[in-house]
Amino acid sequence: MYDFLQNNSLYLVLGISLLGWAGIFSYLVRLGARIRHLEKQDKQ
Amino acid sequence: MKAFQAILGVWLSAVIFCALMFPIVGEITRWYEFPVIPGLEQKARILFFHVPLAWTSVVGFVVSVFYAIRYLRSKQIDDDIKSSSAAGLGLLFCALTTLTGSIWAKFSWGSFWNWDPRETSIFVLLLIYGAYFALRSAVQEDDKKATLAAVYAIIAGVTMPFLMFVMPRIIESLHPDPIINTRGKVSMNSTMLVVFFSSLAGFTALYFWIYSLKLRVARLEFKRSSAGE
DSSP letter at B24? Predict the structure, then answer.
């Protein structure tokens, strides 16, 4: 297990970073959609 | 807007991939290789994230000062909303810079926090902008709060270049040479430079995207709180 982590640490960091970025990105997209909905509600 | 989001999504994914996957080698034979930076080796990869985060925090603080000055001239509450939103994001990115820096310090200097001049100056900056939000929450009246916050944001903005750029250069520090060093030269391999500036552009775009969202939320909050009064 230790050897696996040591040999593949860069791939693990890449995976974690990309997952983190995907999470932030999708959160921001959903937040944008929610704000748009609230703005529409406010106008009505 | 959707095209911008899609481009940014792919752009920053590509930056993450290149920053982490391009091999660091002693002698460069291919275009996608990074040279070894003595003393940094694999740890050099953090500069593709740490420096752009620091840069975006500077952008946030500069935008905050700009709108604070505008508020004092115009007394438009929207300028205060823009100023405080920018300062909030600047503080967030500054905290992330500190976090990435301390992770790097753990592996280079042996501990997460060493009170190096660079760490001390960013800590003081975090305190200054933390106090900005403490000040805002302490005053209830909107106009008074906005005026006080605008004056404070300008004073904090004046200290920012000193704490970010001047102080770490006049006091001896273990922090690696900045990208643009004291000789005014950019000392970086061309592939590294491309990835670095791509990261800088990506993080700046990300900053403005989050800023626009934060601004819209703050405007809605203000509208609703004013309607509730």
Answer: E
What is each CA distance from B204 to A10, B25, B51, B54, B73, in whole angstroms? Answer: 26, 29, 12, 11, 27
* ipTM attached to this prediction: 0.89
Distance between CA atoms of residues B49 and B15, nearest Å: 9
A27 → chain B, closest CA residue = B210
Q: Taking each helix axis as running N to C, give the angle between helix B47-74 and helix B190-228, from 0 to 180 degrees, rounded to the nearest 10.
A: 40
Closest A-chain CA to B212: A32
Dihedral sign (CA B16, B160, B156, B167):
positive
pLDDT tens digit at each of 229 positions of chain B: 789 999 999 999 999 999 999 999 888 888 888 888 877 788 889 989 999 999 999 999 999 999 999 999 999 999 999 999 999 999 999 999 999 999 999 988 889 998 888 899 999 999 999 999 999 999 989 899 999 999 999 999 999 998 888 887 787 777 776 554 555 566 778 899 999 999 999 999 999 999 999 999 999 998 888 877 5
- Tell me which of B1, B10, B16 to substitute to probe the interface with A (most A C-beta atoms closer than 10 Å): B16
pTM of the model: 0.90
Look at B220 and A39 and tell me if their CB atoms are within 8 Å.
yes
Nearest to A24 by CA among B206, B69, B183, B25: B206
